[in-house]
Automatic annotation (TrEMBL):
This is Eukaryotic translation initiation factor 5A. It is found in: Cytoplasm. It comes from the Eukaryota. One of its GO terms (biological process) is positive regulation of translational elongation. Its main location: cytoplasm. Pfam families: eIF-5a (PF01287), IF5A-like_N (PF21485). One of its GO terms (cellular component) is cytoplasm. It comes from Parthenolecanium corni. Belongs to the eIF-5A family.
Amino acid sequence: MADIEDTHFETGDSGASTTFPMQCSALRKNGFVMLKSRPCKIVDMSTSKTGKHGHAKVHLVGLDIFSGKKYEDICPSTHNMDVPHVKREDYQLTCIDDGYLSLMSDSGELREDLKIPEGELGAQLKADYESGKELLCTVLKSCGEECVIAIKNNTALDK
């Protein structure tokens, strides 16, 4: 039998899931839910009355938190639905290089793996950066995806 010291364990993540179950009737507007395997923000929901043969049904309408695409689903109110773990974090923009953002966290860690967001937000971010504004980028992280969803002026640096 091999000595314990010789045993090598591969390090990995903690095995934490990207979602957790929640009863459909407990979901709320402006909350998050997985619709068609995408993390969505609930923008509308309605509950039908129980029918002769069963459960009240909940009709959910959600917008994909990364693409803005609309998804809908109907689920019995007593059933569970997956709810994504969603994390928001603000980073200070330090540089834009070749379409990628250099972002610094509060603890001073640098990350350079996020692209400039598409559309109006990306255009606004570029224009503000080029005009010399100090910017904070709000990054949304869920289900292994990340993207910048908002920018604001960094008032902490104003004198």
